[in-house]
Amino acid sequence: MSPTKVTKGKSLPKLRTEGGQDVKPSGWARRLKHQLYGPISESTTRLKTMKSLREPVVRDMTAAEFESQLRHRRKLDAALVQVVGTPSYSPCDNCEADCSPFTSCMVAQDELGGACANCYWNGKSRTCLFSSCSVKFIMDIMKGALQPEEKPLEGDIETNQFKKSFLEDVINKAQKSFDTITALSQLRVSLEEITRSALQLKAGIKEAQEFLEKMKIETVEDEDEEHGEHEEHEKDEEDEEDEKNGTNGTKGKHEA
User: Fold this and answer.
1) Reported pTM
2) Which residue of 3, 9, 29, 174 has the fewest CB atoms within a 10 Å radius of its CB?
């Protein structure tokens, strides 16, 4: 690979394919920090303020290909983690399978949802061993907590300190996620109960309306019937009065 690649009239830094996590920061580390590739996220801003520790080292990609991929915000963040992040205490499954763009498995606390840069670049955050959403990671933590603590060698102290801090952070995030899921589940149950109560109330109101409507109809019918009986009674009284008046008139004529 040549020292530089040229795209759109501009020279790109040499993109390393060897050296792993030990390549000191240079051209690409600076470019990733200062080049504007498009809209950036809060995570991008935070990563750009962190100290550069190394150059990104890829498996099989040209500088021009790498540059074109950085237009995607997710991949830009992943590349920045390669520059400012910390080597994971052991490669995740995706990194070990050599199906990732970078040669090293890097993570950054509180960034990328806990996923390593390779998985984040490939859009596989949820299956990454280090993701706060990974059940496998939580199970591995629980298993590791039951194992006797090994005395670290002098050269491993920094790595083990990071491992402890990283695991504590992920456990806290996992607990918060679990608490959130539990709360949402309880809220869902409450909403279902409220919905059922509302439906029952609606049904009760409908039954009450139907009952009142029925009572109204029956009341009108009773009033009509009562009114009819009253009119009939008045007619009978009038007939009796007429008949009485007629009888009195006839009697008066005979007396005369």
Assistant:
1) 0.51
2) 9
